[in-house]
Write a structure and sequence with these properties.
elongated, Tetrahydropterin Synthase, Chain A, three-stranded antiparallel β-sheet
Length: 308
């Protein structure tokens, strides 16, 4: 919608004021009719001048018709028309315009009925075509958006993103360019929400199990590499076994089950050496607890149980 500009009104007032002053100074009893004619002529000139002057904003393009035929596309800035002979039927905004539209009860490619609320971003790139080739380009783009969105939904799965390129093909002959179509909301029947939620949960569980399986495969490969290393370096295997036993005994666990074969490979002197190691670790932990700032419940010494 075109906003009223104050310049034509100002020019009308100035011309009428100058003409009235001139007619006043020329007024005499014998020249009354002449002064009245001057005033009337000045009024008509002021009216014609104010009507002939037009100003278009930076984003406006003005369609000028001369006796019903297209003459030119004016704007932005100051331009003139011939009153009565030329008319201005359209002031076209070339900025980006947003339009909301909706597609209700539309079936997707996987036969899911959806209600889609979308926003259309478009702009007029050819004002001449928009004015002359379509009666109301605003309503035309709205209806074209709805029908095109229905076509796109019917060709698209529910999980896919909606695209608005087909709308641009339909509106290009009108001089209108569709920039993008953004979906605000997609409403699906409540009966399908639970099924889709279960499907999504099952898919997440499947991905979690696949990741877990890959992780176990990688761990097994690393264990295989470590086993090959320990075969060629038995001392490293003994040190690793003793370290694992030490880590288990120094915790607050009261019982640690150790296979007898592992004790023999660590060469700790059988059950007597393992018992001495266990008692030593338990005594060290007891001493550390006594030296603590706050007394706490006394934990039992760790015990190692040798299994066959």
């Amino acid at each position: 919608m075109k906003k009223t500009n104050a310049l034509p009104g100002l020019i009308f007032i100035v011309i009428v004021g100058i003409g009235s002053a001139f007619a006043y100074f020329e007024y005499t009893d014998s020249a009354y009719g002449e002064s009245l004619s001057i005033a009337a002529g000045v009024f008509i000139i002021a009216l014609v001048a104010s009507y002939a002057i037009k100003i278009a904003d930076q984003w406006d393009r003005v369609v000028v018709l001369r006796l019903g035929r297209f003459r030119s596309l004016e704007g932005p800035g100051l331009f003139f028309i011939i009153p009565i002979i030329e008319t201005v039927p359209y002031w076209i905004d070339t900025r980006v315009i947003t339009s909301s539209f909706k597609a209700e009860k539309t079936l997707t490619k996987d036969t899911v009925p959806v209600d889609v609320d979308a926003v259309l971003f478009w702009r007029v790139v050819d004002p001449k075509k928009a004015a002359l080739d379509v009666a109301d380009y605003g309503s035309a783009i709205s209806w074209a958006s709805q029908t095109a969105l229905r076509d796109v939904i019917g060709k698209t799965m529910l999980s896919d993103m909606l695209e608005g390129k087909i709308i641009d093909v339909r509106t290009e002959p009108w001089g209108i360019n569709v920039i993008s179509v953004e979906v605000k909301d997609v409403l699906i029947p409540s009966a399908l929400e639970d099924a889709m939620s279960m499907q999504a949960q099952a898919e997440r569980e499947r991905q979690a199990r696949v990741i877990l399986g890959d992780s176990e495969k990688q761990v097994a490969e690393k264990f295989g590499e470590a086993a090959k290393t320990y075969v060629n370096h038995p001392v490293a295997l003994h040190l690793r076994a003793m370290n694992m036993l030490y880590e288990g005994l120094k915790q607050n666990s009261t019982i640690v089950i150790v296979p007898s074969s592992a004790v023999e490979t660590m060469q700790l002197g059988g059950l007597t050496g393992l018992t001495a190691l266990t008692m030593g670790l338990g005594q060290d932990r007891t001493n550390r607890e006594k030296e603590g700032a706050q007394p706490g419940p006394r934990s039992e010494p760790a015990k190692a149980v040798v299994g066959q």
